[in-house]
Design goal:
CATH class of the largest domain: Mainly Alpha
Order of helices and strands: HHHHEHHEE
Oligomer: single chain
Number of domains: 2
Strand order of the largest sheet: 1-3-2
Shape: flat
Distance between the termini: 50 Å
CATH architecture of the largest domain: Orthogonal Bundle
Strand content: 5-15%
Helix content: 40-55%
Structural class: mainly alpha
Largest sheet: 3 strands, antiparallel
């Protein structure tokens, strides 16, 4: 009789949580009980690079939101799109930031991958 996949996954999760808690406690002791964290990567809430002055002058910032929604629907329709699809394409990175800010896109984090997925709200 073996261990089920779920039991194995739960045991691994517990092991990782325990290890992280131990590391956190050690770090707190070494730093006088305080923790400050500054991310070396500057990311927006969308998980993509933030806007720059050059981005503001680009097409994605000049286009009306309704056009961005239409373009999204033409490209991806109603499917979920991975965050990695926006990392290298500056137009869609800026469009995503704008659409998220206007509550035109929903975002979810999945348990089985790093990064979020996005879908247009119709």
């Amino acid at each position: 009789m073996g261990i089920s996949d779920k039991d194995y996954a739960d045991a691994l999760t517990e092991k990782h949580i325990k290890a992280h808690k131990e590391q956190l406690e050690l770090f707190r002791k070494e730093n006088g009980g305080t923790i400050t964290y500054k991310s070396p990567l500057k990311m927006t809430t969308a998980g993509v690079r933030p806007l720059t002055e050059q981005d503001i002058k680009g097409e994605a910032m000049q286009a009306p939101l309704s056009s961005l929604v239409d373009m999204w629907l033409m490209r991806w329709s109603g499917t979920w799109v991975s965050e990695s699809d926006f990392q290298e394409d500056d137009f869609w990175r800026v469009a995503l930031i704008r659409l998220l800010g206007a509550n035109k896109v929903e975002k979810h984090h999945l348990a089985d991958r790093i990064g979020a997925v996005y879908r247009i709200i119709e």
